[in-house]
């Protein structure tokens, strides 16, 4: 019977190396040079390249890509375990060549790009010589492609793109934009005339495309294939986000427990107060359940496909936001006033939780998706009462047991005596 929660010793060694590498080198760099990967200073860039070479020497670069796409091919389960480690440190995904939004964009390029497109854009993205952004959602349509209005029209040897995109994360600092149009996915250099980035929001950009002209070979994948590419991009990405969310929850939990053992209130250590204990116990259980759910989903993807695991992926997506919200809220309260400041990661973590419930599709959409897909496996019961209606179950049981009772009179007598006993009790 194949039922195992252990990790192979060889891969555990990799995880141990990643943990030590992040603690000893990535985390210190985060505090000295936030966003070090994008810092233009040659000295910083050279040091970043040294660290990234260590990652490459371990065979852990671009860990999200399958072998046929140029990656190590660990699969979603091992990838989830890796993300559980690197998700604790803001700068770690970039150090492993596995930071969103580039990861999903590179996956689309690797899977659907022509050889020329891969040479022009995929290799520089993998080397972090350039960076990208994903321009999908729209002000009026949100993340529902059926409501999108951004179009690309062919004129001669060019596509002309017109439309408006909302919440293009890191669009302002991207070199290329992956623009989802009603009739395809297009790669647009950010400095193309007609690409207008609005002043606000600063980090998740509002972009207007006015007569943006790109060559015909900037179409990625087949015409009208944007939805297929988007699903390829988002399916695995949600699992990556989920395990990094587990990492953040573990960080909040560690801070919560440490603080609970360090402060006094009303004459005793606050960990002795039952309400504090309740928050710790509930947070512990929620994190454990989320982790196992995410890893099971990753395992299913590895053994079937992203398509076959759609229900689980959608359920993981809205569950991770809920758990992050609850655990970070509990941690914030146990830290007290300190938790409301920007002197620990807790405040930012709690502020991120609502965004997690919106990014990659709002939770309400995923909740409805899960419900619809789950209900496909059920049928309405006949008559007025459900199949578990006890009088029905007893009648059916009697029919199944009758041959046995007929063959064994002593068992039939015992059954009759027991029924009389039950009637007397009523």
Short description:
The protein is 54% helix and 13% strand. It is built from 13 helices and ten strands.
Describe this structure in words.
The protein has 426 residues and is α+β, with helices and mostly antiparallel strands. 54% of the residues lie in helices and 13% in strands. It is built from 13 helices and 10 strands. The protein has a 4-stranded mixed beta sheet. Helix 1 runs parallel beside helix 3, helix 3 packs across helix 7 and helix 5 packs antiparallel against helix 7. The longest helix is centred in the middle third of the chain and has 35 residues. It is globular, with a radius of gyration of 27 Å. The two termini are 46 Å apart. The mean pLDDT is 93.
Mean of all residue-level pLDDT scores: 93
Q: Give Rg in angstroms.
A: 27 Å
Give the proportion of residues in helices.
Answer: 40-55%
Question: What characterizes the major β-sheet?
Answer: 4 strands, mixed
Tally the helices.
13
- The tally of strands reads 10
Strand content: 5-15%
| Strand arrangement, major sheet | 1-4-5-8
Distance between the termini: 46 Å
Low-confidence stretches: none
User: Structural class, judged by helices and strands?
Assistant: alpha+beta
Shape descriptor reads: globular
SSE ordering = HHHHHHEEEEEEEEHEEHHHHHH
């Amino acid at each position: 019977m194949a039922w195992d929660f252990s990790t192979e010793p060889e891969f555990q060694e990799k995880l141990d190396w990643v943990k030590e590498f992040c603690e000893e080198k990535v985390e210190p760099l985060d505090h000295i040079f936030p966003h070090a990967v994008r810092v233009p200073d040659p000295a910083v860039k050279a040091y970043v390249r040294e660290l990234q070479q260590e990652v490459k020497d371990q065979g852990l670069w671009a860990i999200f890509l399958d072998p046929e796409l140029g990656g190590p091919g660990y699969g979603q389960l091992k990838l989830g375990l890796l993300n559980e480690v690197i998700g604790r440190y803001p700068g770690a995904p970039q150090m492993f060549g596995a930071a969103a939004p580039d990861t999903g964009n590179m996956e689309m390029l690797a899977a659907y790009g022509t050889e020329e497109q891969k040479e022009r854009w995929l290799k520089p993205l993998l080397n972090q010589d350039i960076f990208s952004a994903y321009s999908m959602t729209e002000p009026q349509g949100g993340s529902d492609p059926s409501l999108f209005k951004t179009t690309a029209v062919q004129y001669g040897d060019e596509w002309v793109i017109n439309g408006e995109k909302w919440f293009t994360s890191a669009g302002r600092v991207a070199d290329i934009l992956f623009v989802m149009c009603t009739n395809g996915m297009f790669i647009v250099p950010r400095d193309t005339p007609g690409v207008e980035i609005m002043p606000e929001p600063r980090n998740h950009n509002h972009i207007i495309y006015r007569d943006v002209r790109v060559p015909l070979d900037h179409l990625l994948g087949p015409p009208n294939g944007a939805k297929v590419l988007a699903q390829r991009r988002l399916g695995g990405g949600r699992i990556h986000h989920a395990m990094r969310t587990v990492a953040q929850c573990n960080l909040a939990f560690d801070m919560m427990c440490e603080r609970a053992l360090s402060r006094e209130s009303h004459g005793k250590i606050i960990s002795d107060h039952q309400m504090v204990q309740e928050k710790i116990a509930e947070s512990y259980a929620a994190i454990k359940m989320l982790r196992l759910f995410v890893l099971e989903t990753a395992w299913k993807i590895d053994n079937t496909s992203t398509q076959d695991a759609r229900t689980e992926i959608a359920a993981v997506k809205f569950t991770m936001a809920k758990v992050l919200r609850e655990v970070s809220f509990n941690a914030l309260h146990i830290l007290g006033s300190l938790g409301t400041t920007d002197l620990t990661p807790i405040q930012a973590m709690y502020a991120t939780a609502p965004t997690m419930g919106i990014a990659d599709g709002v939770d309400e959409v995923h909740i409805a998706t899960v419900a619809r897909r789950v209900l496909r496996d059920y049928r309405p019961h006949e008559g007025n009462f459900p199949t578990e209606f006890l009088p029905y179950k007893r009648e059916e049981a009697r029919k199944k047991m009758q041959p046995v009772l007929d063959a064994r009179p002593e068992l039939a007598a015992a059954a009759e005596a027991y029924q009389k006993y039950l009637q007397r009790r009523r």
